[in-house]
Design a protein that fits this description.
Elements: H1 3-31, H2 34-37, H3 46-53, H4 57-69, E1 74-76, E2 81-83, H5 86-92, H6 102-112, H7 115-124, H8 135-157, H9 162-169, E3 173-177, H10 183-191, E4 196-201, H11 204-217, E5 222-226, E6 238-244, H12 253-262, E7 264-275, H13 287-306, H14 317-327, E8 331-335, E9 343-349
Parallel strand pairs: 3-4, 3-6, 4-5, 6-7
Antiparallel strand pairs: 1-2, 7-9, 8-9
Helix pairs in contact: 1-6, 3-4, 6-8, 8-10
Length: 350
């Protein structure tokens, strides 16, 4: 064996473990408000930071040291201070925006906590069902996607589909299938007050949150329903159906797509957002790809298999997505030229 290659691989394993620990420390920074307390970018000692946040000094001291070692905080050894650079605060202390990365900090610990159950599924089959995922996972998904829905969906994304915007402006109907906690549906209802927007999701916890958020927004053209597309009546049909970051999660993707097609109005459009992954493993040999394979194993694939589904997985890729849409009878399936580091977009007609 090549001893140098052994050392290089050991270094890689330690780097990956360091990344996992950094995400764990990021979780603590988000949950305790430490990142928000450092958002002004001013240097502070760990003790002063503990006093400002009301947290236990020894924990804050160790957290600051760990975050500095990871390169997340800047550290002045001579002055004994720590600082969150503004470029880091842009990503770590910007909750609610489309560039906030804090959802990843909740996702990591939440998913890894299910590792024993997933290992059992490897041996026995089945998977980890949707109800096994905790509230942090629900929050993580919202933090990862919610800002983009609020800031980009109705303006930038749907600008690629002017005929859809025209229908909604004139008083059309839109369905957000797999709506989660409702951010996309709320963004649509707010942007197109003449339209009617329905959010549907099988997760009762998500729908409960979505309804509360919808009531707080005071939108009379918005409603939420716990269930699936198959439970919806055949009429009235929809001018737009959204499948945002959930096609690869479905337990019955072909049947669900067929049901969607049957509920689209003539000339209606299906808008699909999926994680940006390539069709080949080599295309995904990068940090984002590895992250998506992890999400796939710990959530997307396993919860689909738990319900008897095919387990398409987070890295289904554009080829498989296009094939699924075409096989379900959609026409005019096409990728959309929307710029995004993390997602890819498709439109299809009934």
């Amino acid at each position: 064996m090549d001893k140098e290659k052994i050392k290089e691989f050991a270094d890689r394993v330690y780097r990956d473990m360091a990344g996992a620990m950094a995400i764990g420390m990021g979780y603590l920074g988000h949950k305790t408000g430490l990142f928000r307390a450092l958002a002004d970018g001013r240097p502070t000692t760990a003790r002063a930071l503990a006093e400002r946040t009301g947290l236990v000094p020894r924990y804050v001291e160790e957290w600051c040291a760990g975050m500095a070692a990871a390169g997340w905080l800047a550290h002045d050894a001579e002055a004994g201070t720590f600082r969150l650079p503004e470029e880091h605060a842009f990503l770590l202390a910007s909750e609610g925006t489309d560039h906030f990365m804090g959802g990843l900090f909740l996702a990591g610990p939440s998913l890894l906590a299910l590792a024993p159950r997933l290992a059992r599924a490897f041996r026995e089959g089945g998977g980890v069902p949707p109800e096994a995922f905790d509230a942090d996972w629900l929050e993580a998904v919202d933090l990862m996607n919610g800002g983009a829905y609020r800031e980009r969906l109705a303006s930038y994304w749907l600008a690629q589909l002017p005929e859809v915007k025209a229908r909604l402006e004139a008083g059309g109907r839109a369905l957000d299938l797999g709506c989660g906690v409702g951010e996309a549906a709320i963004a649509l209802a707010r942007a197109f007050p003449a339209s009617q927007v329905l959010g549907v999701d099988p997760d009762g916890r998500a729908i409960e949150r979505a309804r509360r958020a919808g009531e707080a927004a005071g939108l009379s053209n918005l409603s939420f329903l716990e269930g699936t597309v198959e439970a919806l009546p055949a009429e009235p049909r929809f001018d737009l159906v959204l499948l945002l970051d959930c096609l690869h999660d479905l337990a019955a993707p072909e049947e669900t797509l067929a049901a969607i097609r049957g509920r689209l109005a003539p000339g209606g459009t299906l808008f699909v957002m999926e994680p940006r992954a390539g069709d080949r493993i080599a295309d995904n040999a990068n940090p984002l790809g590895v992250t998506y394979y992890g999400f796939s194993l710990f959530h997307c694939t396993t919860q689909s298999l738990a319900r008897g589904g095919p387990g398409l997985g987070t890295c289904a890729g554009p080829g498989r997505i296009t094939e699924l849409l075409t096989r379900a009878g959609f026409t005019g399936v096409r990728p959309l030229p929307i710029k995004s580091f993390t997602n890819m977009f498709f439109a299809a007609s009934a």
